[in-house]
Amino acid sequence: MWIRRLILVSVLFGWILSPLPAAAQDGAAAALAWLRTEQLADGGFSTGFSEGSDPGATADAVVAIASAGEDPSTWVVEGTSPIQYLTAQATKLETPGLAAKVVLAAVAAGEDPRDFGGANLVDAVLAGFNSETGLFGGGPYDSGLSVLALRAAGEALPEGALTGLVATRLPDGSYSFAGDMTPDAGDSNTTALVVQALLAAGAGSEAAPSIDYFRLVQNADGGWTYQKPSAFGEDTDANSTAVVIQALMASGQDLSEWGHPERALQALQQPSGALAFNAATPGDNFLATVQAIPALAGADLTDVPRLPAGFAATGGSTTPILMATLVVLLAVLAAAGLLGRSRRAEG
After folding, report:
1. Which residues touch 214 (CB under 8 Å, ≥6 apart)?
2. Whole-prediction pTM value?
3. Which tens digit of pLDDT belongs to each residue from 255-276?
């Protein structure tokens, strides 16, 4: 009887431990299976809008693969993995934002970003810092990526980097891609990226106004669009919804209190397993899919340094979250067994 009760408790605890429902994790697995079909002969991935592999798209794919609990180095096509594709591109990265994306991919895959394809990618990111503005590259978006990349690599931030980033926050709590301070210039994507960067850098208190902004611009279906107001439409899209979900998870928000936005993301999943950009443009969309996989798998960008331990421990067979649940279950079962033997001995 005691063992049965403890098993029930352990199952319930495992359910509570997972930040997203099993349906969302199943969606991540289906999206990951579709992603395999998109890998090109050189090991990389295209953006879906142009021919040939793209370093940024491939870096996003690597983070998605690792977030879902698989080792990107085992994704081999014609003898080449996405990691090998990225190492071949490492000395050709022209912006700190792109270098930061590849740093995140390298760390997510368990590689050394300071010695990656003959390049020190951490130095490439640092070289893009402007000490006068306190920003990296082209503005808040590049800065958010750069802060995340440097913290993932265990690198100290340049003096003034967080001050410069926070200074670009608009009164409504949002951030704009290039630092435009015009009212309503902020967007959900840049804001969500910056929130994760602030949390990774230990400045989580600065994220509160942005959390309020997410409430302000959330759609009725629980998802998010790129920008409100917008002359280009305000329908929920997969990219925006996924990155905001990641920011909310990173900040410890309970998604049930946000109307389960993961359901809005799942609603955009296509029969193939890929995700559409939004409901008005159905069809398989690569960028929407690689953005959605980590969110559906329950991982955000502050988790990147911990991802290699997940697929190393599981052999790429399950997500790190499910593995953690299994560990808890086994521990409780072991305790149940010991308790049962103790009670029999007392009887």
Report:
1. 188, 191, 192, 224, 244, 247, 248
2. 0.85
3. 999 999 999 999 999 999 999 9
